[in-house]
UniProtKB/TrEMBL annotation, chain A:
This is Amino acid ABC transporter ATP-binding protein (PAAT family). Belongs to the ABC transporter superfamily. GO terms for molecular function: ABC-type amino acid transporter activity; ATP binding; ATP hydrolysis activity. Residues 7-240 form the ABC transporter domain. GO terms for cellular component: plasma membrane. Pfam families: ABC_tran. Gene3D superfamilies: P-loop containing nucleotide triphosphate hydrolases (3.40.50.300). Keywords: Amino-acid transport, ATP-binding, Cell membrane, Membrane, Nucleotide-binding, Transport. It is a peripheral membrane protein. SUPFAM superfamilies: P-loop containing nucleoside triphosphate hydrolases. PROSITE patterns: ABC_TRANSPORTER_1 (PS00211), ABC_TRANSPORTER_2 (PS50893). InterPro entries: AAA+_ATPase (IPR003593), ABC_ATPase_HisP-typ (IPR030679), ABC_transporter-like_ATP-bd (IPR003439), ABC_transporter-like_CS (IPR017871), MetN_ABC_transporter-like (IPR050086), P-loop_NTPase (IPR027417).
Automatic annotation (TrEMBL), chain B:
This is Amino acid ABC transporter membrane protein 1 (PAAT family). It is found in: Cell membrane. It comes from the Bacteria. GO terms for cellular component: ATP-binding cassette (ABC) transporter complex. It comes from Halanaerobium saccharolyticum. Its main location: membrane. Keywords: Amino-acid transport, Cell membrane, Membrane, Transmembrane, Transmembrane helix, Transport. InterPro entries: AA_ABC_transptr_permease_3TM, ArtM/GltK/GlnP/TcyL/YhdX-like, MetI-like, MetI-like_sf. CDD domains: TM_PBP2.
Length: 252, 228
């Protein structure tokens, strides 16, 4: 079934062993939109992202990237090139420099020549403010810097959208700001983003739409201002108030 | 002075034996790599059946003393109609045992690179094989160098057991010379010195290689790779 959305998820189910972690998730993402998924730990938020690029294949349901149904498409490697992924644990290649981490996907997957790849890598490093760290290895970078390289690596592949899987959850509080700033800029530049995070300030101020999930279901989705101030469900209110109390309203 | 002359007289024979020792070491290590790598892959990426088979092999190869293995190949197999020339018999015995140990080194190195590196590579659209060659292998090789250097030195020294099935390597050349000169102390010490020099060269060479390709954060010096 064709769709005019950039990404469309229909009735997504996922089970680990006997435990059903996703119980029928449906939502869509348009070009240029940023949607943020929030919810308690273990509700299947990250599983959705992993299902989309089939690092963990979904149990049931359909996912469309533009007109292509990607849940069963054979050419998964071509689909993955079009969808960026930013990992909670950064996922940087330890034997490559910051620049090398960005170049490897371009040269080995996209078959770009080395010089072009290098130019693009430097451009993307500059975009995340790390031009002068091009020659540093991951072990020589701070957590925030590593994650910014991770974002630059995803960007360089020129994806149609980027999935962020709790990008700041393994960072010290003082390092989350630099990563969120980069993400905020991307959203403003019109990048399509699907973000799983616990950063309520970011969710409230950057998201076009907020999706609140619990126990494998979407409880409520809509304008973040509405969910924060006047949600339809009592549970949404409890959760968002609790997190806002814990982390404050803004990330700065 | 007599002793020095004796050593000088013995040296050409001992060096001839040394050459055979080096050949034994080279071929045994090569078998160790050629057999050991697929075993490691089978253990990390293989199915249950494959894993079961290699576990049995590994248990056997690590439990039977090398000397017993060499005697079995050289004196046991001919009874079954399989006669292998002694040099090859020695290489097969030493090599197959080394394969069991080397497979453990490679398996550990591959596993310590960690699944998240594979996952990140796949997320960029790399196929499994590409991800292995460009992401996993370069890190695993660096992690494996120090234990491979150690294993190489062990194999080098254990080639002396080939003496028992008649291979004329360093030790047996020495025996011949002792038989005619009756100077076991001097000759054995000279042989020991040659082994010492050879193992030093092997270890030194591999640690140069290690230094040349050293990357911050990978290998023993940088700590466990997953810590970063």
């Amino acid at each position: 079934m064709p769709t005019k959305h950039l990404l469309k998820i229909e009735d997504l189910h996922h089970s680990f062993e006997n435990e059903e972690v996703l119980k029928g998730i449906s939502f869509s993402l348009d070009k240029g939109e940023t949607k943020v998924i929030v919810g308690p730990s273990g509700t299947g938020k990250s599983t959705i992202l992993n299902n989309i690029i089939r690092l963990v294949p979904p149990t049931r349901g359909k996912i469309y990237l533009e007109d292509t149904e990607i849940t069963s498409a054979k050419k998964i490697n071509e689909i993955r090139q079009q969808i960026g992924f930013v990992f909670q644990d950064f996922g940087l290649f330890n034997h490559l420099t910051a620049k090398g981490n960005i170049m490897i996907g371009l040269t080995k997957v996209k078959k770009m020549n080395k010089k072009e790849a290098e130019e693009l890598a430097m451009l993307e490093l500059d975009r995340v403010g790390l031009k002068e760290y091009a020659a540093s290895y991951p072990s020589q970078l701070s957590g925030g810097q590593k994650q910014r390289v991770g974002i630059a690596r995803a960007l360089a592949m020129q994806p149609k959208l980027i999935l962020f899987d709790e990008p700041t959850s393994s960072l010290d509080p003082e390092l989350t700001g630099e990563v969120l700033k980069v993400m905020r800029n991307l959203a403003e530049e019109g990048m399509t983003m699907l973000v799983v995070t616990h950063e309520m300030g970011f969710a409230r101020s950057v998201a076009d739409e907020l999706i609140f999930m619990e126990a494998g279901n979407i409880v409520e989705q809509g304008n973040p201002e509405k969910l924060f101030t006047d949600p339809d469900h009592q549970r949404t209110k409890e959760f968002l108030f609790q997190l806002t109390d814990l982390y404050g309203e803004g990330e700065n | 002075m007599d002793k020095l002359e004796l050593i000088i007289d013995a040296l050409p024979y001992l060096l001839e034996g040394t050459l055979v020792t080096i050949q034994l070491t080279f071929w045994s290590l090569l078998i160790g790599i050629v057999v050991g790598l697929p075993i490691a892959f089978a253990q990390v990426y293989g199915n249950k059946v494959l894993q079961g088979i290699v576990v049995v092999y590994e248990r056997l190869a690590r439990s039977i003393p090398l000397l017993v293995m060499l005697l079995l190949i050289n004196y046991g197999l001919p009874r079954l109609g399989l006669r292998i020339p002694i040099f090859r018999a020695a290489v097969i015995g030493i090599g197959l045992r080394s394969a069991a140990y080397q497979s453990q080194i490679y398996r550990g190195a591959i596993q310590s690179v960690g699944g998240s590196q594979m996952k990140a590579a796949r997320s960029l659209g790399m196929g499994k094989l590409k991800a292995f060659f460009y992401i996993i292998a370069p890190q695993a090789i660096r992690i494996a160098i120090p234990p491979v250097a150690n294993e190489s030195a062990i194999v080098l020294k254990d080639t002396s057991l080939a003496f028992t099935i008649g291979v004329v390597e360093l030790l047996r050349q020495g025996e011949y010379f002792i038989a005619t000169s009756n100077e076991p102390m001097v000759i054995y010490l000279t042989i020991a010195a040659i082994y010492f020099i050879l193992t030093t060269i092997v270890n030194g060479g591999l640690s140069l290689f290690e230094k040349k390709y050293q990357i911050p954060g990978i290998g023993i010096e940088g700590g466990h790779s997953d810590a970063y």
